[in-house]
């Protein structure tokens, strides 16, 4: 049956592959995505899925479509499903080809459009402002509710017990209002001078009414909290309580001391709230927040650990010149529990340093290969570093005859270590630095191959 309907199957398959790739890419470009991201998204949409032949089966069963449509749709669905992974793999080289052959003007236009769309669509000023306001209002309102509840549960009874009459209620009201005032001020004032608020205010007169509304709503919320406290403590008219609450709100807004206290409390609160994340970022256990924003520009933040045997160890960043050689830029160096952000050219790399670099996928791959090559040990280095044990005899022609260990300079000149000395048939003993070598002494030395053979007399060597 597939052979019978081969022509429509091929035509529809090609139409789906080309049409979905083209229109999917076009749609992503219009939404403000870069060319590479747009083509990757468009090429991943080329399958029509099993739902298509479910619809075809339903159409055939209801008699509203031809019978040949069902096998065609099933075949196209299967073919496009199997071809989609290959289309996804093809997206990156295809985007590189298109980018290389685009006119310069078109490429610049797409880059500018993507930048402006990212700012307008994905970082909407209104969205950021509203989210910030809601978060601040909810968090501080919960704190105010908790303070008021604790005050009415514990503070008010104690004050009324020790100060009967209006005095106890007044003291409880003053203490409660003092405790919640920094949080109420933050609810009312916070974000009123933020870049988002200021930009929206200057951008359009139509934004000013909603912005003023956000301020009024927050002020009314603060007045409500104060009225709740006053109504619970004093039996006076609601109008008078409202006037006192409004007066207290004005004092809170104008108080510089309260402003400073509010800022300190907020800073400490969010510092404690984010302390675990901040510590994880500082120690390199978690990627910083800006790492996610790099992806839309085909840039990645990646960690590399400098091996102890790497030839890069003890060299400065200026000497290594990663930016020019590999196109990567070192953002931070993590050395134990110490973090060096934006290291200078004179900073040296040490074994087990973790470096955080920014680069494209291709540059990171090339950088990783270069790091492996810098850490590879050559076979001749391994052979040369082998340590061996040898002995040699002090005879009448030996340059060491009559010299002490210090005067012989065996460690300094030949880079060998004297393991022991056999003197006049005595057992092997540790060398005495002040005792001169005598004729007939057998000296045992340890060192690398080349150094030992330079020192020892080959005819008298004994291998162990």
Automatic annotation (TrEMBL):
InterPro entries, per database record: Cation/H_exchanger_TM, Na+/solute_symporter_sf, RCK_C, RCK_C_sf
Alphabetical keyword list: Membrane, Transmembrane, Transmembrane helix, Transport
GO molecular-function terms, A-Z: antiporter activity; monoatomic cation transmembrane transporter activity
Membrane-spanning intervals of the chain: 6-30, 42-62, 68-88, 133-154, 166-188, 209-230, 236-254
Domain spans labelled RCK C-terminal: 289-373, 377-461
Any GO BP: potassium ion transport
Official protein name in the record: Sodium/hydrogen exchanger family protein
Organism: gut metagenome
């Amino acid at each position: 049956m597939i052979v019978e309907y081969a022509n429509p199957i091929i035509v529809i398959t090609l139409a789906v592959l080309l049409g979905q790739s083209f229109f999917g890419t076009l749609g992503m470009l219009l939404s403000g995505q870069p060319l590479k991201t747009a083509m990757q998204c468009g090429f991943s949409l080329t399958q029509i899925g099993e739902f298509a032949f479910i619809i075809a089966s339903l159409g055939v069963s209801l008699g509203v479509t031809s019978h040949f449509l069902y096998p065609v749709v099933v075949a196209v669905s299967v073919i496009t499903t199997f071809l989609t992974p290959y289309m996804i793999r093809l997206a990156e080289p295809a985007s590189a080809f298109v980018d290389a052959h685009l006119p310069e003007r078109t490429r610049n236009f797409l880059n500018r459009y993507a930048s402006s769309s990212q700012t307008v669509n994905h970082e909407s000023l209104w969205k950021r402002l509203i989210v910030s306001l809601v978060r601040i209002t909810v968090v501080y309102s919960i704190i105010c509710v908790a303070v008021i509840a604790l005050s009415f549960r514990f503070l008010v009874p104690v004050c009324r017990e020790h100060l009967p009459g209006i005095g106890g209620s007044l003291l409880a009201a003053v203490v409660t209002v003092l405790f919640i005032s920094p949080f109420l001020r933050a609810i009312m004032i916070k974000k009123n001078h933020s870049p988002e608020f200021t930009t929206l205010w200057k951008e359009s007169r139509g934004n000013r009414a909603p912005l003023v509304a956000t301020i009024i709503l927050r002020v009314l919320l603060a007045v409500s909290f104060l009225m709740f406290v006053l109504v619970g403590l004093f039996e006076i008219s609601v109008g008078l309580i409202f006037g006192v609450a409004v007066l207290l709100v004005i004092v809170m807004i104008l108080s510089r001391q309260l402003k400073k206290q509010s800022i300190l409390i907020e800073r400490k609160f969010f510092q404690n709230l984010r302390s675990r994340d901040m510590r994880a970022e500082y120690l390199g256990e978690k990627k910083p927040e800006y790492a996610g924003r790099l992806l839309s520009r085909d840039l990645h933040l990646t960690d590399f650990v400098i091996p102890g045997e790497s030839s890069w160890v003890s060299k400065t960043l200026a000497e290594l010149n990663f930016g020019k050689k590999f196109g990567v830029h070192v953002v931070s160096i993590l050395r134990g529990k110490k973090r060096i952000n934006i290291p200078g050219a004179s900073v040296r790399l040490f074994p087990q340093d973790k470096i955080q670099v920014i680069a494209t996928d291709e540059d990171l791959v090339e950088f990783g290969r270069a790091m492996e090559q810098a850490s590879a040990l050559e076979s001749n280095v391994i052979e040369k570093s082998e340590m061996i044990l040898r002995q040699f005899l002090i005879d009448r022609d030996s340059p060491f005859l009559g010299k002490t260990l210090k005067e012989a300079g065996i460690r300094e000149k030949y880079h060998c270590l004297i393991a022991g000395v056999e003197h006049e048939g005595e057992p092997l003993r540790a060398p005495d630095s002040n005792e001169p070598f005598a004729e007939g002494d057998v000296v045992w030395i340890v060192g690398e191959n080349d150094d030992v053979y330079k020192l020892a007399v080959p005819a008298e060597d004994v291998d162990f």
